[in-house]
Structure of Beta-xylosidase:
Amino acid sequence: MFSNAFAGSVKNSAEIIADTAAQTITVDLDKKVGKMQPMWAYVGYDEGNYTYLPESKKLMGNLVKLSQSPVYIRAHNLLNTNEGSPMALKWGSTNAYTEDKDGNPVYDWKTVDKIVDTWVNMGIKPLMEIGFMPKALSTKPEPYKHKWSPGDAYSDIWTGWAYPPNNYDKWEALIYEWVKHSVERYGAKEVETWWWQLWNEPDAGYWAGTDEEYFKLYDYTAKAVKRALPSARVGGPNVTGGLSKRQSQFLTDFLEHCRSGKNFATGKKGAQIDFLGFHAKGAPKVTDAGHVQMGLSTHLKQIDASFKIIKSFPEFAKLPVIIGESDPEGCAACSSSSGYSNMAYRNGTLFSSYFAASFARKYELADKHNINLEGAVSWTFTFPGQPWFDGFRSFATHGVAKPVLNVMRMLGLMTGDRVLVNKANGYNVEKIMQNGVSGTSDINAMASRDENSASVMIWNYNDEDIEISPAQIALALKGIPVSRVLVHHYRIDETHSNSFTTWREMGAPQQVTNAQYKHLEESGNLEMISSPQWVDVKNGQGDIRFEMPAQGVSLLRVTWNK
């Protein structure tokens, strides 16, 4: 007998279709729709000095174990001037560049190396953000280091590090020396696999100069990177994810500059660009009824709008695209316990189900626009030294994985090519962009297939954090080349792969015993809802039925031997 998760799983398709109470999902393993590009394997964080702390290294170790594909990491503040304190929110520093009393450059790569060594030694690749402005080069060096904390105005962080350089030739020399040093330390073949990306959100407060001054900075930066390593990959501009005229105009003007503008550094026409970047964010809110309502529609519309702009430039339409930040909202360090009630989704299954549904639609949008989507960075990491489950946008707390990290683990099991899924209901990316997901839930799937296996991720997502009845799922797998398959069924919900539930059941302690910590660690692992089950295949089709709770995510890993 099958377990409850597979009860009655061997049925023919006619029986399933006749069962109107079930949500039917059909996967055709013979119909490829695109590569299962591991664009999810990109993460980022503000606080570069967190990198070498034990909690961060533990999380990065877990990320590396996700799949055979390398993980890329992007961090802010790698060129900032200060002592390198690791415990300040939305801040980091390395003292990579200072000047002597005569104004001559002094390069010190010790802290930069400490960060990058940690990544490289763990098998992680840098999405190297070139920024921000060292104090000695800033046109407005005072005040320089901010003292932001949750609850302060976001604009309080934009101090002297955000300003243009007082000498572009010195800036160009700094970037040349950085890339050159990287090649000497890690080897050209390694550095060729990195991405070098200039600045962060230059259309917003992160850049206190004009648009033209950013284009100038880009020209000098690209020249420096290519001078040090001609085969290195350099790109930009990582504009904000707004749908405003400002964001759209900046991205358009930047691409036009790269295509036909006068290069400030070389005097020639246009600028070298090897990949493109922008940001995309959702917009959660608290309803009048007092619950969180996510903004997946806004998130996807921002991606759609930026893809359209990129496609309007035929010269750049085939370049790799990296969404430099792609998140449910815009402030990882604004914890829900510090007054940001619209971010109360972050510890539980609303975050994990959003994560699954949103990544599937990123693939869908890339297919729609024929975009070479290389990566989509989750600006989600960990916050050492903060209270347990304090509501930061993080994959882990105190070294314990949150439910959302288990979606990454599921994605790591999806290999080969994406294959056709006939959806369970009327939701597709166009409908979600128009109306969001409210009332009827988005019960859908994404699937992949390689030579001897297939993986199907299924979610039951709703924008609204309200009580919703479980869904009955009828999964039909077509195109199976054998008569019997083995199915591993992984699940994230309130009672599976969920350390947050376990912590609350403990009484939400801020001090935990060794035994409690071990239990929390175990509950944060990706969990199966039963032992692996054999499923018979008839006429190339295997059928599986199970119940999916609201905001739940399942990954069915199907394997066979020919």
